[in-house]
Amino acid sequence: MTQDSINQDISKMTIGADKFKIPMPPQFDDLKSQQLYEKQRLAASFRVFSLKGFDEGLAGHISQRDCIDEDTFWVNPLAMHFSKIKASDLVRVDHSGKIVEGNFAINNAAFAIHSRIHAARPDVKAIAHAHTTFGRAFSSLGQLLKPISQDACLFYENHGLFEEFTGVVAELDEGDQIARALGDYTAVILQNHGLLTVGKSVDATVATFCSMEACCQSQLLAQAAGDVKLIDHEVALKTRQANGADIVTWGNFQPIYQVIENQDDSFLE
C-alpha cells in the first residue's frame, strides 16, 4: 500500500478523515520490529479463526511471508489448537521444506499449498485456508460466488475454482495446481475441500476469508429460497473496487482484532 493510494481510498470512504484519527497500517523503522508485529498479527489471526469456529482437527493454516527473508514464511505448528497459538509458537519454513526457525513440526499440506502460492505470487504476503462449514458445503457445488450482495461483489471476477479434488494435498505439484487456479485473484474455491484467500497483509487475508465464508452461507441460503437477483456487471465491478481497496480489506480486520485482544492478549507472547 502506498501512502497516496491509501489517502485516496480514505477520502472516498470516510467523513472527517482530514480532521479526525482513523486506523492506519503501522510504519516501521526496522525490519525486526516489523517481523515481530507481523508474527503477532498472524498469531491473532488464529485466535480469530478459533472464535469463528474455523478450527477442524489438524486442518486449516494461515501463513505470513517473512519480511526479512522473503523466501521463507511463518505458519502454525502442527496439532496446536488455534485458540492457544502465540507468536513464539510460530514456525518459519523455506520453500524447500526446511524449518529454519521454531520448535514444532508443521502440517505437510500447509507446506505443499502455501509454499507454492508464495513462490508463484511475490505480491502475496499472507494466505489463509480452512475447512469451514459453509465453505465446504459451497465448494461441493463446483460453482463460483455470484454478485448477490455488496459483500459478495468483493469476489466478483476475483476468485477462481480448483475443480479437481485429489485427496489430502501432499505433493508440491498439487500446490502448483492450486496456485494456477488462484491465478492473480484474491481467493480460490477448492472443490469438495474448502476456501483459500490471499492478501497483502495477514489482516486483509483473514478478513477476506471471513467475508468469503459468510458469502458462501448467504448464497446457499438465497439459492435454497429461490432464484437470486444479480447485481449488474458494471455496478459489481465498481463495488469490488471499493470493497477491495487495500485500506478497506486491512481495516475490516481491526474490529475483530480488538475483540481478540480484549479477550486474551497472550497471542502477543
Automatic annotation (TrEMBL):
GO cellular component, one term: cytoskeleton
Domain Class II aldolase/adducin N-terminal span(s) in chain numbering: 40-220
GO biological process per UniProt: monosaccharide metabolic process
Gene3D superfamilies named among the record's database cross-references: Class II aldolase/adducin N-terminal domain
Matching InterPro entries: Aldolase-II_Adducin_sf, Aldolase_II/adducin_N, Aldolase_II/adducin_N_sf
Superkingdom of the organism of origin: Bacteria
Molecular function as annotated in GO: actin filament binding
SUPFAM superfamilies according to UniProt: AraD/HMP-PK domain-like
Family, per entry: Belongs to the aldolase class II family.
NCBIfam families (alphabetical): PRK06208.1 (NF004855)
PANTHER family: ADDUCIN (PTHR10672), CLASS II ALDOLASE_ADDUCIN N-TERMINAL DOMAIN-CONTAINING PROTEIN (PTHR10672:SF39)
Protein name as it appears in the record: Class II aldolase/adducin family protein
Annotated organism of origin: Psychrosphaera haliotis
